[in-house]
Specification:
Layout lengths: L3 H8 L2 E5 L2 E5 L1 H4 L6 H14 L6 E5 L4 H11 L3 E4 L10 E6 L4 E6 L7 E9 L3 H12 L3 E10 L4 H8 L4 E9 L2 E4 L1
Length: about 180
């Protein structure tokens, strides 16, 4: 698959330092600068091609997985559930501790039932902190994760993350930061 619009937007991305973490600022991962609908369409179409969405629900984590998961919900006709950053105290709510390369947060899963088949959709995988915590929380419900689809892979740890969670992560493009600039690998 060719991802010309996505690749072009990535190469043009700014890189900012957050401690010793090199954070890529891109419309798909941040909504900044504005998200070109051609890039969004390209990413969503590609995600739909690499998964059959054999699921009861598409699940994403607040906030930047939301545009991708929403578009995929519309495209596939599958319901969408969002892991939120605030507690609602609803029956069956499951909380998880998210630790990324630049932040820590508590997230809350609602709207899933034991036995649900779930496709996880996200914008980027980097340290694996979000996925590790999410998969662990989903096992407690328990649901069946049928696929994990992520637009951008920014890590050399993907195989390690996959071993730890026991699932394959499908990504569209892999990037790295070289001399303060984004390179598509």
């Amino acid at each position: 698959m060719v991802f010309e619009a996505l690749k072009a937007s990535l190469v043009e991305s700014a890189v900012v330092e957050r401690g010793d973490y090199e954070y890529i600022v891109n419309p798909i991962t941040d909504g900044v600068p504005r998200l070109d609908p051609r890039v969004l369409t390209e990413v969503v179409d590609a995600m739909a091609e690499i998964s059959n969405f054999d699921c009861d629900v598409i699940l994403t984590v607040e906030a930047l997985g939301i545009p991708l998961a929403t578009a995929l919900s519309l495209k596939t006709g599958k319901p969408l559930s969002i892991v939120r950053k605030k507690m609602y105290g609803l029956p069956g709510e499951v909380n998880l501790a998210q630790v990324t390369g630049y932040s820590k947060a508590t997230l809350f899963v609602n709207g899933l039932r034991p036995g649900d088949r779930v496709v996880i959709v996200d914008d980027v995988v980097s340290t694996g902190g979000t996925l590790w915590a999410l998969v662990d929380a989903l096992k407690k419900i328990p649901v069946q994760i049928t696929d994990i689809i992520v637009a951008i892979e920014k890590t050399e740890k993907k195989a390690e993350i996959e071993r730890k969670i026991g699932l394959q992560i499908k990504t569209l493009v892999k990037v790295e930061v070289v001399d303060g600039k984004v390179a598509v690998v």
